[in-house]
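ugh ok fine here u go
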Amino acid sequence: MTASLVALGMVLVGLGDMPYGYYMLLRLVLCGICLFHLLGGHPPASDWQRWVTGGFAVLYNPIVPIQLGDKDLWIVINFLTVGWLFFIERQSKTSAGVRT
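structure:
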């Protein structure tokens, strides 16, 4: 849950008028959190969940950035990503028998 809270906080800060470097840092952090969920910490249970998480990791990768242009579109995608991260974290905890 901590990784998703960090992502949410950074996305909320990014709603303001921040320098370009902040958005590159946000991209790096979100890519890292997606990779963490995909490969280690809370692996998604089904194939389609792994594909969605991997797709978000590719979208946010800092090495070959994908340019979508409009900040409003990125805001929507960022919140969808954070919602997805909360979903897979909650699902992995319930599948492990831990209630939140």
